[in-house]
Write a structure and sequence with these properties.
Elements: H1 10-13, H2 25-31, H3 64-74, H4 77-83, E1 84-85, H5 112-115, H6 118-130, H7 134-141, E2 157-162, E3 170-176, E4 179-183, E5 197-201, H8 213-225, H9 228-234, E6 235-237, E7 257-258, H10 264-278, H11 283-295, E8 303-308, E9 319-324, E10 327-332, E11 337-343
Parallel strand pairs: 1-2, 6-8
Antiparallel strand pairs: 2-3, 3-4, 4-5, 5-11, 7-8, 8-9, 9-10, 10-11
Helix pairs in contact: 3-6, 8-10
Amino acid sequence: MIDKQAIECPECKDPAMVDRATLDRRGFMQTVGATTSLLAVGGAAPRLFAGGRPAQGERQAKPAEALIRELYQGLSDEQKRQVCMPWNHGAGNNQLATRLRFYNAPINQHRIGTALTRPQQELCQRILRSISSGEDGYRLLSRNGTFDGSGSFGGCGAYIFGDPTNNGQFAWVFAGHHLTVRCDGNSEPDAAFGGPMYYGHSPDGYSQRNCFYYQTRSVLSVFDALTEAQRRQAIVIGSPGEGDRSVQFRNDNFPGLAASDLTADQRRLIESVMRDVLSPYRREDADEVMQIVRRNGGLDRIHLAFYRDGGATDNNWHFWRLEGPGFVWNYRVLPHVHTYVNIAVPRRENQG
């Protein structure tokens, strides 16, 4: 059984679950003007610095794809019925295939902790580490090992679509609270990460307790560097929404400020933001994203927008968003972090 309401967030329904330990935001906005390290597109991955941006780790001795094949080959027939599905499972009638949807919880009732043996659970953990940028990337994806509302690694789900043996098409999808990540060995053509991604954390995005606070700080360094005229262009009143509809590709009319209208120094800040948001993931996935950006027209086609709803004050953005052809990074800051990502070479029929 597939969870049709997978992207609903329990915290949004139960305010008592939301972490209220946040910074004074007015004070925060007075202290985030420091510029992040300037990184060229396709250049070196971020290194650890005091206060939060993670370092890229060394590549695992055995890549994730080989570990997925090992996991699949060790599954019993009963386990395969629980955690394996056909490549195009769920597709049809204008529905995305199950492997390409966002999830805010395990896809079905079969959790890692109950469906898999202890060695298989350890193998899944090695896979997740292998698609992370070392220990710092794993810390971010696991939200300091808590897996947020899931409470534990065993409370999440790990699923294989297709057949990873004999060079077959496959995707490994890991899903839990505020997290959907995947690895597909490039089975999904022209799509970074093998399909859309989702991550989040319970504290709000202005709180230093949020694992992704460094991303908020990085993008706000760009806002601090804008002129007043540029800020007026970058600010959007309203909301871009969340989920599938918020990350559909379009041809033009991107909201916000175009990178082509920025100075060289400001453009380098945008490049730094892009590397920062990619920093939890292994280097080859981050490099593939930047290759897709170049194929879709380069940095000049990327727009940056700060979304403020009618009740926001000062510069307390509810969303910020990087968008261009085949690139959407939709980051909700308040009341807590939800981020939806879709990066691919867009097919003509998928563009609006």
